[in-house]
Amino acid sequence: MSEGDSHLVWKIAGGVVFGLLIFNAIERYQQRKALDDGLRELQRIAADPDPMGWRAAANAHQNASNRALTNAPMPVPPGFRCTGGTLLKRIEGGWMQVTERHNEWYCPHGGPVEDCYRVSAQSTGCR
Question: What angle do CA 20, 22, 25 make, to 5 degrees?
Fold first, then answer.
């Protein structure tokens, strides 16, 4: 082995070590950037009083329920009819009386969930 070959081995080894150092620096930079992004997102979530929107959804549902209880009677939906103060629902072969114990709901086609309402003699004003 000549002296020039010996220096070549050191140059190659130095190049490999230098390459590993550069690779390590790039990895650390990417990790730091990801950590900063994560911390920024956590700070944004911590500053938001309702990050998942659950409180807003619960309030909207509560407001819809309150509107259903306090507003004027809702119209009698299709498949139901009011006869002599009795609310009836169309079933196969006839009609069934709807009482307060029944859990009947009507949602207008294509409308938002907030437009749904419970169908009962009281909610429809069937008297």
Answer: 110
